[in-house]
Amino acid sequence: MAFFSRSTQPAAAVNPAETESLAPNTLIGLRNIEKSYAHGTSRSYVLRRINADIKEGEFVSIMGPSGAGKSTLLHIIGMHDSAWTGEYYFLDQPVQRLGAKERAKLHKQYIGFVFQSYHLLDHLTVYENLDIPLSYRDIKKSERESMVCDILDKFAIVAKKDLYPNQLSGGQQQLVAVARAVISNPKVILADEPTGNLHSSQGKEIMELFKRLNETGTTIIQVTHSEVNAAYGSRIIHLRDGWIVDE
Prior knowledge:
Layout: E1 26-39, E2 42-55, E3 59-63, H1 70-77, E4 85-90, E5 93-94, H2 100-110, E6 111-114, H3 126-135, H4 141-154, H5 170-182, E7 188-192, H6 200-215, E8 219-223, H7 227-230, E9 235-240, E10 243-245
Parallel strand pairs: 3-8, 3-9, 6-7, 7-8
Antiparallel strand pairs: 1-2, 1-4, 4-5, 9-10
């Protein structure tokens, strides 16, 4: 089914010396990533010397107490945040050297993001919100319509397709946000507390969906406080005070 089709790798070449430290099949390579804010003559660090490799097809959970830097790290990986130092390689592309347009193109082509606060467009219906990620791809209108209808059915939200976000409950908005993240068959799904606003049964359904997607090759990286949700993954990255600890 088209829902589980794979994306292809970008063609741009880089100097092999830049990526020689990456393990084989590395999708995401982070080297000495730091994020900080200036406070007068001093700096306050949110992330410190983050080094990690995430291979294609992994299901990784990022855990830690509030304020540990989990969401910040996820937004850097998702290329929403460019104010950081260090080296970040995505499919061997040196993200730290890419311009804003190049980063946006990578994000739109390969990454699906589930925001903690939904980030649905209030002036668009559920149907239109789901169509947005497909509009970035070279997909025929008839195929886009079919894909939106399939995802509406898969998430049991067909009856909500003509409603606007402010007409939905928090849980319903979260379901739409997850559906939007997976509809374009991304190579990697980044999820920030994806079940935080869902009933336990709905949350289990979402995690089971992520598990199925992962089994077909999609890389999943989630931020979670839930040990139950983390158990769906193959590895946990623990953050504390901006540092990776006892991974």
